[in-house]
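Quality-control log, excerpt.
Job 1 of 2 completed; input and output follow.
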Amino acid sequence: MNVFRNQHPSETCLKIYNTIENSEPKWEIAIGCLRQPEFVIQHRLDMRCPLWNYLLKVLYQYCTDSNIVKEVLNLFQIQEWLRISNQAEIVEYFLYHAYRSCFDIHKKLLLDLDIVNTFILCKKFSLVKIFLKYYLAPRLTLHDYKLFACRIPLQLPQIRPHVLLKPSLEGWMSRGRNFRCVQSIYISNCRHLMDADECLCLLWRSIPDSFISFGEMNRILTEVLPTCKIADIYKFYSESVDAGQNCCQPRTLMHYCRIRIRRTLSNSRQLSPDGISCLDLPSVLKSYLLLSR
């Protein structure tokens, strides 16, 4: 396994790697390494170090004890690792064992952030689907709200953050709805990327809010974008979330039931594929609770 590729690892990293590769069971040696204060102090903040990915992959391949995985989750900067990781199978591994061990990943965040929002901002749309199997819905945080507003001008230079935040500041839209509009505009501007449409769909399946109307989006953007551009953004949004003619109307009763059941499962720490599979429901309803199309 060429863990370090073209990088030049330290002597300590090479020693750890060789020790694990020549030992059984590998995961016990990996855990022992992670438990060493010297290693944690030296490498904790450097989540790009290839040794981290190697150690986490060893755990993924060989360790099935949720309490041990919980211990590991307490040892490293999960927020930074999730931000840079593209390893969907290991992300799901950690989420599964976090669920099994009652570990709340959000409590490990250094800032007032929501992990799903972080994935969206980093354009890791495929990871949103994994997270929403275990988490109710992305939360509104003031930090994320401002981050989305600041990122859109990088996509569309003619837009300034204050334009996007104006609806809530002027009082004609709640901050929560303004946030969902800005978030949806951001994802819609990433429509050329894989899984952007599914991400937008799952996001709106996880929340009770009524769909955004063209009038709302147009009112936000009309001063800075031509109508045809706004129409393109809205077309992607409405097709992704399957809004149809129901914009600004309450969502269906079936959808509200889904939100309520998912919230109840989340409050009882049962929101997961395993938890939903235990429900005495037809498979089609179980899929519906998992936000499947």
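Job 2 of 2 completed; input and output follow.
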Amino acid sequence: MKILTNNGGNRSVPTQQLKQQGRVTLAISHNGFEFDYLQDKWVLSRNITINLDYLTQFKEAVAEDVRETLVYFAENSSAHHTSNLSKQLKLYLEVSKGDDFSELGFLALKGALPKKDEYKLSVVRGFIRQMRYLGLNGNTDDAVYKLTDQWRLSGNEKGVAVLSLDPETGPFSSTEFEAIGLNAAHKYAEGALSTERYATLSLFKATGRRNEQIASLKVKDFSFTSKFTGNPTYVVNIPRVTEVA
């Protein structure tokens, strides 16, 4: 996005002024989706849309800084990462009960989160650090940065559910996995499951790939060839997608 400025400064033209001037306010997400950054709803990818109506809870000047920083992330980071930032900013507002980034607000959020959820606080801290890097920290007191820069915060626990075979959020057991396939086959035979849905489920079951990869498949990715096995067989070429930031 080309940042529009007042008198050569590094601050964006206020949202209301842009609307009145009828300026083009479109941006392209990292995943290639066009969105109007002055609207509250941003479609960032095939599967991810974020709603920024909560920004009205910030003071207007702070809301402008937050919106512009979110545009930066939307254009340069994955849709999933941008969505997570938005989610944690909303959490900050809900917990802090404030309308800006303040020492009290961050202390309130820190006190409300258990150790395992400290990564959410780290996400918000990372966001305001990016605001500072972009020169959008003029409406946030330096004391907030001095306070939060001192903290050592725990990161998000990764892979715990899988490694511990958590019955609620962990992987399916071999029995469950087999039952899913058998039940799907029966439903398909009965006509209760469409060909499209059964094929999609079978692809997930056979490949274990992420939903973004399956959603990105095109007709050209399917072939009937003897190139890999010596005998003609059906082959699907699963596209690679950018890892979630």
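Post-run check on job 2. Confidence is low (pLDDT under 50) at residues 1-11.
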